[in-house]
Fold this protein.
Amino acid sequence: MRWVLWVCSVAMVCVGGAAWAYDYDFDDASQGAGADAPWRAEARWDVVDEEGTRAVHLHTTEPRYISPIVSYIPEDAEVPSPRDVLGYIAGTEGKLTHPDDEIRYFEALAKASPRVRFVEMGPTEEGRVMHLVIVTSEDNMARLDEFKGYTSALADPRTTDEKAARAIVEKAKPIMHITAGLHSPETGPPEMVMELAYRVAVSNHPDFKRIRDDVVFLITPVTDVDGRAKVVEWYYRYLEDYESRLYIPSISPPYWGKYTFHDNNRDGLQISQKLTQHYVDAFYEWHPVYSIDLHESVPLLYVMGGTGPYNRTVDPIAIREWQWAASYEMQELQRHNMPGVWTWGFYTGWNPSYLLWLTNTHNSMGRFYETFGNSSARTMERDLRNAKYAGKKITEQQWYRADPPDERVQWSLRNNTNYMQSGVIASLKFTAENADRLLMNFWQKGRNGIDKGREDAPHGWVIPQEQRAPSRAAYLLEQLQRHGIEVHRATKDFKLGKDEYKAGDFVVKLDQPYGQHARNLLDTQEFPKDAEHRPYDDVSWTFGLIYRVETKKIDDDAIFNIEGLEFVAEPPKFPGVTPSGTARAYAIKNTGQNTLVTARYQLSRYTVYAAEEAFEVGETAFPIGSWIIPNRGSVKRQLDRIAEELMLDVHALDAVPDVAKHSLDVPRLALYHNWVSTQNDGWVRFTLEQQGVPYAYINDDDVKRGGLRGRFDVIMMAHQGGRVSAKAMVIGRDTKFGAMPYTRTSSAKGHGHLDSSRDITGGIGYGGLANLETFLNKGGTLMLMGSAGRLVTDMGLLRNVSTVVGGGVSTPGSALKTKVVRRDHPIAYGFEDVHHVFRVNGPLYNVPEHYDHWIVVQYGTKPLREEKDEDKEDEAKDAEAESDEKEDDDSEKKEKSKNDGKFMLSGFVGGQESIEKKAVVLDVPRHKGGRVLLYSFNPLHRHLNQGDNNYIYNAILNWNDFPEPEPKDHPELVKD
């Protein structure tokens, strides 16, 4: 590429055969890399890498898209720059760096410079390694453990009072952490951080000397290492010859990480993926006071400040820090006349599920950048005329965007590097200049959280040991511990107000450093109805609701004086009880335990029955759906192990109960994915594998091949999100660019994992749709979650079910009240008659009145249809008579009665009247024995709504035993 520097004309830049015009002569002393260029004043402390610097200006499309501080590359005789190792600078046209080569560069940098360390954070799901780069002065490097100790002490104001904190601040160094490459097609950040690390390590500029002396700087150069490898290989395989966003193949391969796609930045509550776990571990080790996650999307540089509504549990100091840092960064770039830098109007600041929010919820400051990018290494013209955010055009001046970008910009990867690097350098300067304030704020936010927990109700929560599903209660408690929240357990009975609690119950007091985060996770959320802007993501996440675990909010400050509390250091477990000796049979109550599905597969050699009605044995009541297991072979030994591991109580029976029952025959299960959307099927795969549920993973090729019923009994399909239409599910990725294999090759070693195809374009087509219909006609079952249901409703595979469009319905991640309509239906096993589900926006379904019998569970508790007048009169008389006979003085029952009419339990709901009485789940039988299960929500949403998972597990375990009742008044219309 270096020959280009000498052959391009001064009026054009030519790279890879392409050319774009700008009035930027890099040999002109007033603008480019000439000897008298203005930026050389910034470079006067350094030796300049002239060739690398000329490349910087070559690949920058206009001089206003660069700041002086990044206008040159310093030269160091001992320490290699990225160009020395890789052969090109960051942001070079046509070049993306594979993570293997990034590792090679950082190893070389750390080997040569005493100011750099390169350490492993941990392995990925696919066996690659996530790393951390540490850049600071030699003196600081020798004292890292000391600085970690200081920030750790500041993190707990209970043991570090204000006087001690101020003494620590005089000695401590603020730790700043930036992460790059979380979203893999956002290709710029991993390129930029190589140059940034080098620049901070070697430059003699006073700003960088101060940064090294006064900041311990951490970089995660590639956060999703698996995804970065796939994306770089995808670019060189399919994208490098395209230079227009209007005509280019899909910019992303079908997979990034093993399980997560874009949602790897929605795992901050679950902490389920390796990259999140490594990030959390790094936070607890280092306690950075400031973290930035580098992203790439909107023009030209968005520095996070948030529009609001802000998360109610975030300390106001943090919100002010967001705005303080954003203002500093904007003025730093704008004093160099870099246009298009803005804040406020893109993102709310409400949802805490993002990776960097693990800092905001732990008294640090977490922010992100969105730098404009092409998801490619090619320069492209970008038309911004119609781009709007927060209802305003991006090209218009606003109070939060003083200098908007032009309507059209010629944008390069180097421009992206310039903006992002300039912003991070500004943040590093901000941190160095305000070190004492940021460190003291970190301590103060922890102090505020403790005080707020003591002064403002609620003061804590009690999680009773006795739960319908002990395994989910154990999971909730473990999740609190993962979030650094202290949990205690009572060693004796105690009383709070009028309520009595038992020894063994768990107590979460809010007078702890992360007490406000405990409030965040355990309390309900109500997104403001009058919010000016739409929610950015899910608006609720109440752990007790999404896990379906009983939690009790405590307003009584006597919680701080409970005697005999023991700190819970390890994740709690509730081993199930098994009977001693032998019995004719055994039983397990079905109260909605997620681990029942795991148990069934572990008992695959044995017969297990589900009771089709409730029954009693002695004084023990077993609800409908409970298990009956004949004592055969070594089943008792297996049940002993299962009770211990899966937290299930096993009961001995003298005889097999005389009750209607059916055998739980596990199906030949397939999870079908297309190549358009693999986002949600990754969460399905992760959840099924966590529960030990085996499945075949099939794609469009399998469906087009046909013969599905001979291989599978049940085919499930994940929610497709809101943007994938039924048509897109059928026609798939565009075929106009030719066949696109997703197979492993010598140059694309990351491809072909998880699944592969010789051509991922074209979808299943109408032939594949016909094969799905044949599968149904031959008795197969389709389980379609969320918007996947539109494949059958909109494409004609299902009669008498229509998709509801409009109605102003909005449920962006909300807990909504629901009611079981068909108590005898296995999908409802283990759920209480009135319960709730966690619903993200998706389709709703209508059926004619005479098909109401297809509805298993409905939204709300109102009758499905308006009752006849005489029925209403009779019901009113019965209610009046019952009222005369019954006196209710129980305050708890009164409170429950008062709340019975509440439809939304947490979150936000728009168009309530349009969603109430609609189906949560439809079981639609077909004329030849097959059936379709339609879920109007996603029961496996991001491994988050654990309490809804049994909607899927029940269907898997009872797939061939669904009852088919006669429809009311229409006995001839049992099937379609």
Notes: The mean pLDDT is 93.
